[in-house]
Amino acid sequence: MRVFVTGATGFIGSAIVPELIQTGHQVLGLARSDAAAQQLAAAGAEVHRGDLEDLDSLRRGAASSDGVIHAGFIHDFARFQAVCEIDRRAIAALGAALARSERPLIITSGTALVSPGRVATENDEPDAGSNAVPRVASEHAAAALLAQGVRAALLRLSPSVHGDGDHGFLPMLISLAREKRVSAYVGDGSNRWTGVHQLDAALLYRLALERGSPGARYHGVAEEGILFRQIAEVIGERLGIPVVSKSRAEAAEHFGWFAHFAGLDCPAASKLTRERLEWQPTRPKLIEDLQRSTRYFAV
Fold first, then answer.
1. Structure-model confidence comparison of residues 3 and 294, the more confident one
2. Is the C or the N end of the chain the one with fewer CB within 10 Å?
3. Domain identity same for 154 and 13
4. 298 assigned to some structural domain
5. What secondary structure does DSSP assign to 162-211, as a single string?
């Protein structure tokens, strides 16, 4: 299969590309810079120049492929609503090129969008009310494409996709702890995150592409609920600094914009995903990764 991959040189995309190539697929990777183009070429992928705001480029990439994995996203939380709208338009453009065909489109979302405070399943829909997280726009875009005859499916990732080269939430927490000289959690730290290793996530994208069903939701979850306090404790141990509790009010000052995520209780299951796609995560778990990794704590 010839697969168009957005976000192909990002943390997750850079694992998806070799996963696809090593299993016999051809990859057409979206690249917005010369450096990204060189990285894709070195990995054995064909380069497609453009970015997530170049809708014509997205349509052309999708039209020339047998399937699409949309793993790209602009991680700018200072303008989160705006970048979620960019993602919605990008999904619509990709889908327009695939309508009324049997070519699959795998769209990335997040498990944290669904039912905070209880274990989310693949059957759950995200909150669509006034309290909805802006990223829900991606799921709404997927639903709209289904009505247009697109074989769209959702792959919801854990808040922490971890592994070597991670530049997501864990490095942010480590950097903040190093700066503040304490590793903090909110309240008693019993709020739960889910986690999945980068390479397990890449395998899941491939399986969803090859075996997925239109309208399905898949959960990239290797661990259903990791106490946030445990994450803070490992960071404190590795940095040799105190581990402290922060009240909600104190957390807002300590974590800044990240306070919402630090206090979020968002456990999620992946039982149906494992059954439907025969996906079995085998890579190191989040706490193990933090304990053994040198890259997370390299200065």
1. 3
2. C
3. yes
4. no
5. ESTT--SHHHHHHHHHHHHTSEEEETTS--EEEEEEHHHHHHHHHHHHHH
Do 112 and 212 share a domain, yes or no? Answer: yes
Of 220, 66, 214, the closest CA to residue 152 belongs to 214
- Range 52-72 average pLDDT: 98
Q: Which residue has the tokens 């850079």?
A: 14
pLDDT > 80? residue 133: no
For residue 216, what is the domain's CATH number? 3.40.50.720
Tokens at 39, concatenated: 């990285």
Are 102 and 180 members of one domain? no
Q: Tokens 């209780």 map to which residue? A: 265
The rounded mean pLDDT for the chain is 95
Is residue 110 over pLDDT 70?
yes
**C-beta of residue 107 within 8 angstroms of C-beta of residue 113:** no
Half-sphere exposure of 298 (CA within 13 A, CB side): 8
State which residues form the domain around 97: 2-159+195-222
On whether both 202 and 179 belong to a single domain, the answer is no
Same domain, 178 and 271: yes
User: Which amino acid would we find at residue 31?
Assistant: A
62 pLDDT tier (thresholds 50, 70, 90)? very high
